[in-house]
Amino acid sequence: MPTLRKLACLAAALLVFCGIRAQTDNDPGTMIVTALRDQQFDTALHLLDTALKDFPRNARLWTMQGVAYLGEGRKTEALASFRHALKISPDDILALEKAAQIEYDAGDPDGIPLLEHLLRLRPDDRTSDGMLAVLQYQQGNCAAAVDHFEKAATLFDSQLPGLHAYGTCLMRLKRFDKAADVFDRGLALNAGDSRERQVVASVELLAHQPERAIATLDPLLRAGQNGQALELASAAYEGLHDTEKAVEALRQAILLDPQNVSLYVDFAALSASHQSFQVGIDAVNDGINLRPNAAPLYFARGVLYVQLAQYEKAQTDFEKAYELDPSESLSVAAQGLAAAQQNDLGTALAGIQEKLERRPSDPLLLYMQADILLEQGAEPSTPDFETAMRAAKRAVELRPSLGPAHGVLAKLYLKSGLNADAAIQCRRAIEIDPKNQAAVYHLIQALRKSNKQAEIPSLLKQLAALRQQATQDEREQYRYKLVEGESQTR
Predict the structure, then answer these.
(1) Interacting residues of 117 by C-beta distance below 8 A, sequence separation 6+
(2) How many Cβ atoms are within 10 Å of 53's Cβ, its own excluded?
(3) Which of 38, 194, 405, 483 has the most other CB atoms within 10 Å of its CB?
(4) Angstrom distances, CA of residue 166 to CA of 112, 114, 198, 483
(5) Do 89 and 117 form a contact (C-beta atoms < 8 A)?
(6) Closest by Cα among 38, 84, 91 to 61
């Protein structure tokens, strides 16, 4: 942030040319100060080398050496000099300021304790508050950052990256109302940026301020041709209970971007909210015609079929969705590990098995081993399948509360034709996590294969409700990601 650096440099210069003069009465000292003032840094360093040999415990000389190194652009040596000065004199304001500035410019968290020390010495130092806020934000410590952002608010009025950082921290703390105000200040600096407007509108929707979001989006809506703005506007209109405009905005967005799966899913959710199930199905059918391999569309249509009590069609759609999106069967922990291995399940499995050699009774590792073997296509009567079965059984034995392990064991039982056992494991997984969509879906499968149809309609309704809630959560997460993606300090 240029403003912060200018203020810090001005303060540092005043201290150098005032504080140092007061302590330097002999000719060599005067010559050092003069050299620094005249930006003759090489001369200053030569004089300081001699002076420090005579007075190695003089903190001010070390600080001056740091200033001279800075003048030559040698930040590493400058930082070492300032830190040496602070070992001798921990409260040396100039050394603290300069060292903190170097660490701040590098985005180094080592600057945090230096700035905290400065604020203990000078509680009203807004520049230090601003720098500390940014460093804390960069470390993901928003709880600490927000207080400093607030204190240094005026320093960020013209700093868009700083406002983005402040607003993002407020978002992470779920202080959406305040975040909307901060992002609005950012929009004032960048009013012509359509992406910036969409970010602000997203925050306002998360803050449940739909009327304000419409006002923010108005320039984009009047200009037309912006599908994402129309999608946000639809949510805002619905928040204002103006369903007609919400529907019209989504229809326009679909016309502009007919390949966008999320628009059809939004339309399905809107239709379901207003009991217009067939209208929603018709819209999703259009999407499926264009994107026949998009799992979310089959999930969305399945939810609508449930509302119409067309359970066989719903079940077919849910099965198609799970077929198209195998990641639905791979649990959270295994997905994370697979992602870490760049989705190379073989490498991920090798890593798990290596760890199991050291910790053979680790339930989480056992469950992940079973999950990945199943994901790799292990079939009954094969060694991999038997290994997966043993691992899943052992995992639930060691930790009965591990819901995903029950889910994996249920899938293994289903593949083995042990439908009653699969149903038991599904029910246990649902008891542990009532939002476990996969467990509900597999329970439906187990009951159908056991010719126990009575419970299936109610389970399909449960699955549809879970999917609707998940869709709503995904929309909220999408809005947050829109903000997060545009809010990095640069």
Answers:
(1) 90, 91, 96
(2) 8
(3) 405
(4) 17, 21, 18, 12
(5) no
(6) 84
pLDDT under 50: residue ranges of the chain:
1-25, 339-342, 488-490
- Give the closest residue to 42 by CA, choosing from 53, 32, 52: 32
- CB atoms < 10 A from the CB of 180, how many? 25
DSSP result, 276-344: -HHHHHHHHHHHHHH-TT-HHHHHHHHHHHHHTT-HHHHHHHHHHHHHH-GGGGS-HHHHHHHHHTTT-
The residue with tokens 């922990």 is 333
* Whether 206 contacts 230, CB under 8 Å: no
Distance of CA 263 to CAs 207, 214, 231, 240, Å? 22, 18, 7, 19
| pLDDT given for residue 275 in this prediction | 86
pLDDT confidence of residue 65:
96
Q: Are 378 and 385 in contact (CB under 8 A)?
A: yes
Which among 487, 482, 485, 484 is positioned nearest to 228, based on CA atoms? Answer: 482
The answer to whether the CB of 239 falls within 8 A of the CB of 210 is yes
pTM, full prediction = 0.67
The pLDDT value recorded for residue 64 is: 94
For residues 196 and 226, give the distance between their C-alpha atoms in angstroms, rounded to a whole number: 13
Taking CB atoms within 8 Å and a gap of at least 24, the contacts of 283-286 are 283/254, 286/254, 286/258
Show contacts of 385-390: CB within 8 Å, 24+ apart: 385/412, 385/415, 388/412, 389/416
Contact (Cβ atoms closer than 8 angstroms) between residue 304 and residue 272: yes
Whole-angstrom Cα distance, residue 416 to residue 393?
14
Total residue length of the chain:
490
Residues 197/186, Cβ–Cβ less than 8 Å: no
Query: Rounded CA gap, 256 and 258, in Å?
Result: 6
Half-sphere exposure of 59 (CA within 13 A, CB side): 15
Angle at CA 78, nearest 5°, toward 76 and 83?
95
